[in-house]
Structures are given as C-alpha cells and as structure tokens.
Amino acid sequence: MVESARLDHASAQQVLSSVAEQVDLQKGSRDWADFERRFDRHFPDLFRLFHSLYGSRPDFQDQLASLVIETARSWKERPTDLKIKDAEREGSGDWFQSNRMLGGVCYVDRYAADLDGIQARIPYFKELGLTYLHLMPLFLAPEPFSDGGYAVSSYREVNPKLGTMEQLRGLASQLRANGISLVVDFIFNHTSNEHEWARKADAGDPRYSDYYWIFPDRTMPDAFEQNVREIFPEDHPGSFVPLPDGRWVWATFHTYQWDLNYSNPEVFRAMAGEMLFLANQGVDILRMDAVAFIWKRLGTTCENLPEAHTLLQAFNAVCRLAAPSLLFKSEAIVHPDEVALYIDPAECQLSYNPLQMALIWEALATRDASLLSQALERRHNIPAGTSWVNYVRSHDDIGWTFADEDAAELGINGFDHRRFLNSFYVNRFPGSFARGVPFQDNPRTGDCRISGTTASLCGLEDGSAEAIRRILLAHSVAFSTGGIPLLYLGDEVGQLNDYDYALEAGHEADSRWVHRPQFPAERYANRTDPSTPEGAIFAGLRRMTAVRAATPELAGTRLVPFATNNPAVLGYQRPGDGSLILALANFSDGPAVLSAETLSGFEAVARDLFSDDDVRIDEGVVLRPQDYVWLRVVPAGQAGAGGAAG
Question: What is the C-alpha R_g of the chain?
C-alpha cells in the first residue's frame, strides 16, 4: 500500500485481499457481497481519515489493514436480524427524523432496578409513545465513585447490579420488536483507572502505558497545563494526577478517569472494537461522550481541535463497514458555534441541543423569549441528514451556554445575566418560583450551575397550576422546533427533587443526584387522573405526542423564524409540503396579544391542532398565561378551494 494520502485501486484491493485471507467470509456469499459493496464505497474515506491521523507513522499500513480486518470479523459476527435492520435503514436514512420519534432517558437502577425491570416497562413505554430509549451508563464502573457510570472499567461487562450483557442483548431485541431504538453512552475520551488497560499501564506495561497520556515527571504536564483549563478544580488541580511510582497521567475530569491517547492508532483500533461490539449487541445509537476533549496537542486548549472531528469521521467510516445502521449522538456542552461543528452525516448524525434547553429556562425566568428566538433564527438549522435531540432537562446540570456576543446584541451583559439566572433558579432571587439546587457553587463570584427536576425548577412543589403550565410550555418548544424530543423519564408525571440524595454513598458531593430520583411510583399511579398535577402533565404530554405524530410538517428540523412583535411570545414556522405550522408560546405570566398586523401574512382562518378547530386570526390572537398553540396556517393569497386551513 502507498503511504501518500492518495489511494489507488491496487492498494485498496490489497487490503480487501487481506480480509479474504484472514476472515472467514466466503466470496460469493451475501455477507461478502455486502461487505465488498460497502468497502468500495467507504474505504476511500477511511483511508483518507486514518492517513490524516496516523499517516506519518511507519506502521500506518499495518495498522490500517488490521483495522479493516477487525471490521470484517465484526461484520461476520453481526447477528442476522441486525443485518436485516441495516438493510432497512440504509434504504431509509431519515428514519430518525420522523415526527413520530419520541425519546426517553433514565438510569436503569433508579427507574426500574435492573435490565429485567426495564424490559417489564416496555408496555408503559409504548403507552407513552417512546421510539427511542437512552439507558444511562450501565457498564462496569468503580463504586461508589463512578461519576454516575462515566468511569468505565469494561465496555463488555454490564454492572452486575443491573444485569448481564446477555440480558442487555435480550432487552435490545425486545425493544427493537416494539419499535424502540436502544441508545447507550460510549465514554470514549477516558476509561476508569480500574479498566484492564489502565491497570496494566499503572503496572508499567509500556504497551498499555501508551494507551494513556502518561509522563515520567511534571515537565510535559506543566507544558500542557499552560493552555488547558481545569474542569473539576475541586477534584484535583490541573489536568494531571500523580501515580504511586512518580509518573503523571492525564485526567481531564476526575482522578479515576484517565484520558485515552488517540495519537496511538492502537487505541483507535481498540475503541473501534468496543464500539462494534456494542453495535452487535443491538445498540442503535451511541451517545459520544465529551467529544470536545478527545484529541490533545501541545500549545492548545486541547478542546474542539480539528483532529477530534477527524476521529469521529473515522469511527463513522468504520461503522459504515461493519454496523451501517449505527448512529452517533454528540455531547458537546461548549460554545454554540462549536456544538454545530460536530453535527454532520459523516460525523454525529444526532446532537443534543444544549443552547435551546438553556434558553427555554432563561425565557421562563425572564418572561422574555428574545434570546431563545434569536437562537432559533441563527443556530437551529443544521445539515440535511442530521437531527437535534431537544430536551427540557437531562441527567446533567444546567449551564448557561449562550454566546455573550449574541446576548450583547440584545443589550444583555452575559456575565451579569448568568449571575441572575443562577440566583433565580436556586431561589435566591425575590419572587422566584424555582426550587433548584446549586452545582459547583461559588458564592463569592456568583458562578454555579443548576440542579433540579423539571417540575421543581418550574415551581411544582407548591402544586400550582402555573407550574403545570410552565412544564407543558417548556416541552411544547422541545416537541415542535424540530428534532427528537427527549423526556427524562419521570418528568412526564412531574417528579420532584430528591432532597435526600446526599444520604446515598458517593452522592453527597454531587448535587445533580437531586434530579435523579428513584422511580416515583405514586406519581405514576396518578397519571390517569387529570385532576392531579401528574395526571395533568401526563395528559398534556400525551396530547402533544399524538398531535406531533399526526403533523407531517413537524418531521425533520427545518425551521423558519417568525417575528411575534411581542418579546414574551416565541414564534416560529415549520414548513411542510405546501403547508405551514405556526407555533406560538407565551412565556409571560399574563395574557399576550399578537396583533392582526403581525398575523396579516396568513389567511384569516387557521386550524388549531390541539383543539382541532378552525380559529380566526385576522383580528389577532390572545394567548393565555404560559399558553402555547400550534396553528396550521396558509400564507395570504394561497388559500385553495378547500378552505384556509382544512
């Protein structure tokens, strides 16, 4: 094989011949034909990307050939039913952009005790309308300090308290049979210091020492730390932690989470193997954790480097060979401009939408939707073949990720505004409805992030109607802006903060456990009683799900801004095939008026999708406090013989 960045046909055939020699895939078989077809299509990309990362190494050829052989073995071992799913989804690449998609996320132990408990809840998931289930980290991890499972000791072993890999495989099969895609976390920036690789590195094995960023003294750590920021300064200073023998290892997050060294191609191959193993258990989507940190280069911040994108693209190319229906979801809580860079059909097809999430809460606190409206106009539309994952709350804290330069255009000082929001959501601001708990609080500077369930942050601890309306209002945005709506399970019945979180071993120093309560059985028991807060919330979200599923304009992510001329009211349009949905959401505590002039670009009659009634909008619209509407409208002058909105 040539070592230049150019790939000729003979070199590609040399690699394919190596596959034929070393992998028991019979030429002429369906499996061989499928692999060869995808090899012809995707190997040039893999070659280019792998060369970009490792082409200067003398073992580049051998490393690449070994990688492709490993992907072929994984394809050979892939279960037949998953290969059938691959073929179906290759023919419908936009399946995840459907308006029928609805996601749920939970911790297995807290929501259902174990994997068998999750499987027993499949009938409820179908009742709720889930098509996507994200199980929070469930692999073997050190206890009790596991960072919520994000310190992985083995990617091939389930935490014994939750079950076994065989049970996970069975659960994936049952979910698939019920139309629910399985999502798990792929923690690929680091492993636990108890991982087999880390144990060998700790013992001085030179091969596995090269799997991590380990240095004999402080010379290189000091050089890196001139530019690298501290992530958890309360856990340890800087980015490196000492080993007993005097060496230093890179640990961006906690002392027990050691960063992998992707400048070593053997690490890439090893992690590609772990990824394909999970795909072959029936995992549909991998949440790619901490994507911003995966590549290091001296003299930089070691965040959001170009090679991080190259790595993700190379992993994608591997998956297209051996698990073609597997998708990636990026987790990047960084500047909005940086978040967008990870969203690409060849990189991460899905992405969390942290900016929208944060600005929903900002609008609830300020009763002003201006920042959220600006974000939808500037930062919502993403490449074809990709999708947002929109959420109101997740397992993590809320950080105020808006760009200061965006806020400044609206006359908002970013630093001061974040201090206000922190104060508001931890109930330090007069008149606040929120009952949040500070995370990593610094009272001297006012800097902190916010913990709390959706219901507690919306004020439901007093059982008020306003709190219920806030909860539904927030979700109406996540359900209608475009992308996959994601519920933190339990929020659909208004679960409240667990103020006893600190009594659990390993949780006392992490306030995020306040919004990760145990399964709220009593609240679920009330979900069918609309006279209760949990019943009202559940009914509202079920109605939202049904209306969304019946509204083809809400598929995909395309959004067109709409100026409401009222700062309290968020507005946007979702265009369809010759039709249009106008979504309006009133964030104020009083009625909000949209004038006839504001709505003069539409025909006089619209269809209210929630009431299924025709409504006149030619004299303006009045929205009740914390109310929202989705209107099927017709641009003025385009009404057909069938009526304006029928």
Answer: 25
Check residue 628 and report its DSSP letter. E
DSSP line for 136-169: ---EE--SS-STTTTS-SEEEEE-TTT--HHHHH
Q: Tell which phi-psi region holds residue 166, choosing left (phi > 0), alpha (psi between -120 and 50) or beta.
A: alpha
Low-confidence residues of the chain: pLDDT under 70? 1-6, 8, 446, 640-646
Cβ 177 vs Cβ 119: under 8 Å: no
Q: What is the mean pLDDT of the chain?
A: 94
Kindly report the CA angle at 409 between 587 and 566, in degrees rounded to 5? 30
Looking at the DSSP bridge assignments, the partners of residue 133 are 104, 182
Q: Report the distance separating Cα 534 and Cα 524, nearest Å.
A: 7
User: Active-site residue 31, yes or no?
Assistant: no
CB-based contacts of 588, cutoff 8 Å, min separation 6 = 367, 568, 569, 625, 626
What is the H or E stretch that residue 525 is in? Answer: helix 521-525
Quick one: which of 387, 459, 383 has its CA closest to 424?
Answer: 459
Q: Which listed residue (34, 185, 259, 331) is catalytic?
A: 331
**pTM attached to this predicted model:** 0.95
Task: List Cα–Cα distances, 390 to 28, 350, 359, 484, 570, in angstroms.
Answer: 45, 10, 12, 6, 16
- Burial (CB < 10 A; 0-12, 13-18, 19+), residue 16, is middle
Catalytic residue among 114, 289, 498, 553: 289
> CA 376, CA 408: separation in Å to the nearest integer?
17
First to last CA, the chain: 63
Q: Judge whether 496 and 455 are in contact, CB under 8 Å.
A: yes
Decide if 153 contacts 140 (C-beta within 8 A): yes
pLDDT tens, position by position, 326-372: 999 998 777 888 888 999 999 999 999 999 999 999 999 999 999 99
Instruction: Name the residue among 444, 452, 320 with its Cα closest to residue 35.
Output: 320
The identity of residue 514, as a single letter, is: V
331's tokens = 């987790």
289 counts as catalytic: yes
- Residue 516's Cβ-count burial label (10 Å; 0-12, 13-18, 19+) is buried
